[in-house]
Every structure is written in structure tokens, then in C-alpha cells.
Amino acid sequence: MIVKKGVKELVEEAEEQVVTLTPAEVDDKSQGEGVRLVDLRDIRELKRDGIIPGSLHVPRGMLEFWIDPESPYYRRDFDAIDEVILFCNKGSRSALAALSLKTMGIDNVSHMQGGMSQWEEEIGRVELSLIHI
Predict the structure, then answer these.
(1) How far apart are CA 120 and CA 127, in angstroms?
(2) What is the pLDDT of residue 80?
(3) What is the per-residue pLDDT across 52-102, written as a single tens digit (0 to 9) for each?
(4) Whole-angstrom Cα distance, residue 123 to residue 126?
(5) φ, ψ dihedrals at 47, nearest 5°
(6) What is residue 37's three-state secondary structure?
(7) Strand order, beta sheet including 83-87
(8) Quick check: 17 and 99 in contact, CB under 8 A?
(9) Contact at 8 Å (CB) between 101 and 130?
């Protein structure tokens, strides 16, 4: 199989089109009304590294389905949300996901630079995950 455009290029293109926030900016914004911090990591990552307090876990493969009110999988967790901030482990999946939501017409979406790894390094506020696998 020949890949004509790799993940690195896709992420770079997404980064050019979406808002990227530092962990400190995310920490400030996440305290506001109507802001939802969405964790896209795999459940094994949540179990291994813990979670950011107050974040909502959404499996990456379900994000577009859970956020679309017309989808049979829509989650009411998004009812009163004015802004969505996405994060993953390093920032690549969240950049791609933010671009996907922007393509869906969601303008108030951003993602966290460096993901959970950078959050742990700079902010350090993490809770143990209660997910059992």
C-alpha cells in the first residue's frame, strides 16, 4: 500500500485550520460556563494515565455521532455546550477531530496542544480513572 499523504501531513493541515490552546489556556477556559472538555483517548489510556477532572470521555470513533443532534447516538452531554475543547494523548487525534467538527459546522471547537502528556507536565491535575477493562 502506498500512502500519498501521511498522518504527519494530515495533522499539520488540521493544525493550520483549527484553534490550538495551551494546557494553561484550557485550564482557564474549562472553568467557564458552557465549556466542555472532551477526552478522546482510548479507555486503556484513561486507565493508565488518569483523567482531567471534569472532562467527558468520548471514544474518538463516536465523537461526530455523539455531538450531532440528528444522530441516533446523540448524547445530551452536549445540550448546553457553547464551546468544545478536545484533547487526546499527544494532540494529533484531537487536531484531526477538531477539524472534523469544524467541517460539520461547529465553529466553537478547539484542541489542546500536546494533549494529556503536556497537561500532566504543565498543570498536573489528574484523577484516577474508574474505568475497568
Answers:
(1) 11
(2) 87
(3) 999 999 999 999 999 999 999 999 999 989 999 999 999 999 999 999 999
(4) 9
(5) -65, -40
(6) strand
(7) 19-21, 109-112, 83-87, 35-39, 56-57
(8) yes
(9) no
Residues 81/65, Cβ–Cβ less than 8 Å:
no
**Distance from C-alpha of 57 to C-alpha of 70, rounded to nearest angstrom:** 20
What Rg value do the Cα atoms of the chain yield, rounded?
A: 14
Three-state SS for 127?
A: strand
End-to-end CA gap in the chain:
33
Phi, psi of 39 (to 5 degrees): -95, 115
Beta strand extents in the chain (DSSP E only): 19-21, 35-39, 56-57, 83-87, 109-112
| Helix 7-17 with 92-103: angle, nearest 10 deg | 60
- At 83, phi and psi to the nearest 5? -145, 140
Q: Which cell goes with 75?
A: 448524547
